């Protein structure tokens, strides 16, 4: 196969994988928070529940920026939510060789009240450090940015993060609490994983209450 045909073949493979639902493009998510004074108790509990029991939890220190893109030529677009794209990179010098991450997150599917988790489309793409310049040239606007430090746990396919958010300029914490997220990436139709997440979330009570959160209700006007 020639190099000219390789991108075409890769795209064909991606489309075929999408048709048979093997691409993990759905994020199942539960969120909550815990006060700083209680976070060590939660970390101890997670260490006993998760797979990396015999080792310290993985730590991370990342920078994240959120960009928005709106079709200003379309009058109807003024009244619709813009496309949001998130760019993330590690602030750890040891990870300087790692690629930047571009993430698209769709609107949450909240219609099914019986579903125990929030579900939304999610695509992650590795990219070069010039991604922020590229998005700006495309007409995207920087909405906000922050740094986040925390701990990462894994339980099977589930990922649990306990993180604190800081202002990027002076590293001032935004609150006196930690954000706790339980998430899992799966193909479309894998709703059975949501029940596994609900069961795991029950084990963290009453330290932290993980639940579906409609971010549209808390977003500023």
Task: Describe this structure as you would to a colleague.
It is found in: Nucleus. Component of the Mediator complex. This protein has an eight-stranded antiparallel β-barrel. It has five helices and eight strands. The chain has 221 residues and is α+β, with helices and mostly antiparallel strands. Strand 6 (141-155) and strand 7 form a beta hairpin. The chain has one domain (24-218): Hypothetical Protein Pfu-838710-001 (Beta Barrel), CATH 2.40.320.10. The longest helix has 14 residues, at 6-19. The chain is 21% helix and 36% strand. It has helices spanning 6-19, 39-49, 131-137, 192-202, 215-218, and strands at residues 26-35, 58-69, 83-90, 100-105, 118-127, 141-155, 158-166, 177-186.
Rg, nearest Å:
19 Å
- The low-confidence parts are 1-8
According to CATH, the fold-level topology is Hypothetical Protein Pfu-838710-001
> How are strands sequenced across the largest beta sheet?
1-5-4-3-2-6-7-8
Count of all domains = 1
Can you give the helix content as a percent range?
Answer: 10-25%
Q: Main β-sheet: number of strands, strand sense, barrel status? A: 8 strands, antiparallel, barrel
Could you tell me the mean pLDDT?
Answer: 83
- Number of alpha- plus pi-helical segments: 5
> Structural class of the secondary elements?
alpha+beta
Pfam families: Med18
Organism: Chironomus riparius
InterPro entries: Mediator_Med18 (IPR019095)
GO molecular function, one term: transcription coregulator activity
Secondary structure layout plus pairing:
Blueprint: H1 6-19, E1 26-35, H2 39-49, E2 58-69, E3 83-90, E4 100-105, E5 118-127, H3 131-137, E6 141-155, E7 158-166, E8 177-186, H4 192-202, H5 215-218
Antiparallel strand pairs: 1-5, 1-8, 2-3, 2-6, 3-4, 4-5, 6-7, 7-8
